[in-house]
Design brief:
The complex is a heterodimer of chains A (243) and B (462).
Chain A lengths: L1 E10 L4 E10 L4 E5 L6 H8 L5 E10 L2 E2 L5 H7 L1 E4 L11 H12 L6 H14 L17 H15 L3 E5 L7 H14 L5 E5 L13 E6 L2 E6 L2 H9 L7
Parallel strand pairs in A: 3-8, 3-9, 6-7, 7-8
Antiparallel strand pairs in A: 1-2, 1-4, 4-5, 9-10
Helix pairs in contact in A: 5-6
Chain B lengths: L4 E2 L8 E2 L5 E4 L3 H10 L4 H16 L18 E5 L13 H9 L2 H8 L2 E6 L2 E7 L1 H5 L3 E4 H7 L1 H7 L10 H9 L4 E5 L9 E6 L6 E2 L2 E6 L4 E9 L7 E3 L2 E6 L4 E9 L4 E11 L4 E8 L4 E4 L2 E4 L4 E10 L4 E10 L5 E10 L4 E10 L7 E10 L5 E10 L5 E10 L2 H8 L5 H17 L4 H15 L5
Parallel strand pairs in B: 5-9, 8-11, 9-12, 10-13, 11-14, 12-15, 13-16, 14-16, 15-17, 16-18, 16-19, 17-20, 18-21, 19-21, 20-22, 21-23, 22-24, 23-25, 24-26
Antiparallel strand pairs in B: 1-2, 3-4, 5-6, 7-8
Classes of the chains: A alpha/beta (243), B alpha/beta (462).
């Protein structure tokens, strides 16, 4: 589904961040990326979605066998890639309900049936224990950290992409909220879609069937293993991977 | 009379072919006398016009704000005469002109939600009507030219009393040339459930519009008045120098809304002033989208316990310089002023908000809170806030907050990652920014405003 080959990318102001990264995600898989602060995890997510702040200097990103390096962010979203932001942005005056409807219409080929959309939205909110009046609030404005993350998962369920990249969606959540998020991921997951979970915390992985765990250090994936690798890192840290 | 409309996708851009329309161009004593004679005015009105002309010739151009040097009055039609009498039946309005107002949705809005409508086309009021039951209660809503003839005592008592003829150069010009506009009188204790709306359409190429609006809301009364303005785009300069005089009596409330969508070749030099008596309230609601240059600073004079609220939004695009703001004079004690201004600029547009506050010594315990926020869509656009404030007592509470922001790349990326195009992302951000203002507008106009914002944003992505 997603294939990244020897990817080098830098911030527009010049700093090289990704340095020869390879990654392959197949349909139906859950991958976990762990790595020390500043190793390039968020940069990788941003580069996949072609955030204009970054620039690919060499390498390729393929999604469903199509080169997507040069597509615009919204075109990539339309192909079916979703990213849950480490720090979701506050957008004043824009109601969540209006925003979700606009977004759903933008990524769908045909016009969205309003009734179906609302029923589906209400179901999802229910499953994520989100109160009804929540969708009348302005997008992320004044939300607590946990509310912002739950809102990202609500967007994930609403937009139902093929590949979900979750950048530290579990950070800063209490134990119950972590459960809500991992339930959300399970609700989303089926054999036809894939998930990349970026995390510092093995807790979120307890209820999930993880296929691979990657360790990203200094802009490169330097080790890949199964879910036991996450436990191992949680216990011993990254020191043995850092030179 | 024969007129023909040139069709165009943009409803604001309807032009009417001009045959048998006589235009008076330029500004001399003879021209002023001719206009007055044309209107068959009493001598006291002509005297005001001539005195105003004198002031116009003497007064200097403003030495601050936008550059007005491109204005050449010798090229402006100061009076456009079609010889249409004001009627209270749309059937009487020449079809081509009625079509323009139809497209603007005026007769439809009248049926649905308005208590009365006035419609001005260039220099002439072509339609004016107020509901019969309001008439019976003593409400007057008519063409200002008509009011001079039918209600001379009322007009004499208030006309030029809020805005004096020598206030500044362009108000002197206005008083020399004024034509049309609305006169409103709401007797004591009358509460209008629906708004009155006057719509000013400047249709002729190179023409000026100088309507005079005078509103008196007597004690314990309530009125919502809506002013709409638009013009088709030409490549020559048009001039709008209107004047609005408002008198809000004890315990009365006047909500005065303006949606201004002049074409981008318009110089809009408008003057508005409200006297607010004890415990009265003026609400200014302003949406400024059009014009090449606007200079517009409604003034409120507040007596004991009087209130002033202003909610305003301006949107300046390429080649536009929108210089707006307000003046407040607090004369009485316990006055309250709340100002909420937002501006959006793009493609090199300039938005300036000037506030000028004077709190007199006897206006003790006055409260003023001003908030100005601006959003710039690119780095070539400009936005300024210029506050000036004189407080002559020591128990006034004054706060002024100004925020200038650029549309953030992170927000655009966030929205685009959800599938919105760059254009959609910008549009949703701008509408969100304007939302607290647009929700205060009369309902039809809130929709209108969103449409205007979308229209302004079309083609933002180059
Ligand atoms: N736009 C940018 N301009 C300059 N430097 C950047 C930019 N974005 C990221 N960096 C730098 O690149 C490195 C990687 O940042 P990134 O956010 O990808 O790390 P991360 O692995 O997600 O860290 P964390 O675990 O703290 O979230 C950091 O040193 C960061 O300061
Ligand atoms: Mg990160």
């Amino acid at each position: 589904m997603l294939v990244i080959k020897n990817l080098y990318a830098k911030a527009k102001d010049g700093k090289e961040i990704l340095k020869g990264l390879d990654l392959e995600i197949k349909k139906g898989e859950i991958h976990v990326i762990m790595g020390p602060n500043g190793s390039g995890k968020s940069t990788l997510s941003n580069v996949i979605l072609n955030n204009p702040k970054y620039e690919i200097t060499s390498g390729e990103i393929y999604f469903e066998n199509e080169l997507i390096n040069n597509l615009k962010t919204n075109e990539i979203a339309k192909k079916g890639i979703f990213m849950s932001f480490q720090t979701p942005v506050e957008v004043e005056g824009v109601k969540i309900s209006e925003f979700l409807k606009t977004a759903k219409n933008s990524i769908s080929d045909e016009r969205v049936n309003l009734f179906k959309f609302i029923t589906n939205l209400e179901e999802n909110m229910d499953k994520l224990s989100i109160k009804k009046d929540f969708i009348n609030r302005e997008l992320n404005v004044g939300f607590s950290g946990g509310e912002k993350k739950k809102n990202e998962i609500l967007q994930l369920l609403t937009l139902n992409p093929k590949l979900a990249i979750l950048d530290e969606t579990d950070s800063g959540l209490d134990i119950d909220a972590i459960k809500v998020v991992s339930n959300g991921i399970n609700l989303f997951k089926n054999e036809n879609n894939s998930v990349i979970i970026i995390t510092h915390n093995a807790k979120i992985l307890e209820n999930l069937k993880v296929d691979y765990v990657h360790v990203l250090v200094n802009g490169k994936i330097i080790k890949t293993g199964d879910s036991s690798l996450a436990k191992e890192i949680e216990e011993n840290g990254y020191s043995k991977y850092l030179k | 009379m024969k007129t023909r409309i040139e069709l165009d996708d943009n409803i604001y851009n309807k032009k009417v072919k001009e045959e048998s329309v006589s235009k008076i161009v330029g500004l001399t004593k003879e021209i002023v006398e001719e206009i007055s004679k044309e209107k068959d005015e009493p001598k006291w009105v002509l005297d005001i016009r001539l005195k105003a002309l004198d002031y116009f010739n003497k007064l200097p151009m403003p030495n601050w704000g936008p550059d007005l040097s491109m204005l050449n009055l010798d090229e402006i039609s100061t009076y456009v005469k079609r010889g249409i009498n004001t009627s209270d039946k749309w059937e009487d309005v020449p079809e081509e002109i009625k079509n323009v107002f139809d497209k603007l949705g005026i007769p439809e809005a009248e049926k649905k939600s308005l208590a009365g409508v006035g419609a001005q086309f260039d220099s002439e009021m072509v339609y004016h009507k107020v509901q019969d039951d309001l008439k019976k209660q003593g409400v007057i809503y008519c063409n200002f030219d008509t009011a001079i003839k039918e209600y001379p005592d009322l007009v004499k008592e208030y006309f030029t009393k809020a805005v004096p003829i020598m206030d500044h150069k362009f108000i002197a010009l206005h008083y020399a040339l004024f034509s049309g506009g609305s006169f409103v009188y709401i007797p004591k204790g009358v509460h209008l459930d629906n708004p009155l709306q006057s719509y000013f359409r400047l249709n002729s190429k190179g023409a000026g519009q100088f309507e005079h609006t005078l509103i008196i809301v007597e004690e314990d009364s309530y009125l919502e008045f809506i002013e709409g303005c638009s013009a088709p785009g030409y490549n020559t300069l048009n001039l709008h120098a209107g004047c609005v005089e408002l008198f809000v009596k004890k315990n009365a409330l006047l909500r005065f809304s303006t949606i201004e969508n002049w074409s981008k070749n318009m110089l809009n030099l408008n003057t508005k002033k409200a006297y607010v008596d004890e415990n009265g309230k003026i609400e200014w609601i302003m949406g400024s989208f059009g014009s090449k240059i606007s200079m517009l600073y409604p003034m409120s004079i507040l007596e004991d316990n009087a209130k002033c609220e202003m909610t305003q939004l301006s949107f300046a695009g390429k080649g536009q310089n929108l210089d707006t703001g307000l003046k407040v004079v607090c004369n009485g004690k316990n006055t309250s002023t709340v100002v909420n201004s937002k501006s959006i600029s793009k493609d090199g547009g300039i938005c300036t908000f000037r506030s000028n506050v004077l709190v007199n010594k006897k206006a003790s315990n006055s409260k003023l809170s001003l908030s100005c926020e601006s959003l710039m869509l690119d780095s070539i656009s400009r936005s300024d806030t210029i506050p000036s404030c004189t407080i002559l007592n020591d128990d006034t509470i004054f706060s002024h907050e100004a925020k200038i922001g650029k549309i953030s790349d992170d927000t655009i990326f966030y929205l685009m990652s959800r599938g919105l195009s760059e254009e959609e992302a910008k549009s949703i951000i701008v509408r969100g920014f304007a939302e607290p203002i647009s929700k205060v507008f009369p309902v039809e106009y809130a929709v209108e405003m969103n449409r205007l914002i979308n229209m302004e944003l079309e083609g933002t992505i180059g």
